[in-house]
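LysR family transcriptional regulator
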Amino acid sequence: MDLEIRHLRVVCAIAGAGSLTRAAASLGMTQPGLSAQLRRIETLLGGALFDRRREGSAPTPLGDLVLAHARAILPGVDQLLADTDRAARRAAAPARIRVGSVGAPLLGHLLLAVRELLPSAEVTARCRYAPAPLLDDLGAGRLEAAVLGDHPGQEPPPRDGVLLHPLVTEPVFALLPAGHPLADQEEVSLSGLAAEDWAAPRPDSDRTREYWASVFALTDRHPRVPYEAEGRQLIEIVRAGLAVSLCQATFIEVPGVVVRPLAGNPLWYRHVLAWHRDGPLARHGGAILRRVREGYLNACADSPAYARWRRRHPGAARPLV
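Structure:
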């Protein structure tokens, strides 16, 4: 007979109850049955674990040794069983998949991949500007997956149970009014734009503004930023000819603005997919990454400026999957 976890539970139950009779009642056993099992355990471990007295059962020195180890082992075993049970229940039949995203072109592709792989699940999405709240939601179980993004030197700290899967690191491009004097150039220099008025995200947990400033500091230029905006509002300010800005390489040009690469590729942006290690998407990770990778490559082709840049820099921004 080998020592089993249930044997350690029996020893702890007897010590906790103080007698075989009370321990048998708590374990749902008969007192003779528990006595027989204890004798088998003692034979296996090489000696008596309890002194049987009229007033009850007290651990022997060998019993104290076994109890010390059992009380150290059993909480970890119980936690393991609880975690695996929770993971199995999550993966078995997810009724709802909650997805979050920063402003990036991968959300639609992730949603399509999830719907294809888990057709019976209800899929919902919500967007945030910064990745930190999405990571918090993933760690707390409020989201099953998320599209994240960061910059060199700004990689997020690990969250317990959250798996991060970088997809690609791509260059950051300039966003100009269509009538801007530099719009006819194939690429523009960052230092050449430093004298312009800028529209930029407000400095917050996204840290985009911080990253832009750190790169500008290398040029000894400090651009003026009279307009703080994100998303559609930022685009409208640029379209009106009031400012220049930066954008992701996969940004699709709309009337009134143009996208141009920056000479020397001084700024970069990393796309990251994330999900919970114990969540229902973990076992589909490889398939999700392949589908989102295909979607990303299609987004590259839909951006003329980025497509031209990729032809000039083969392999420089290749998806990792």
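The two ends are 49 Å apart (CA to CA).
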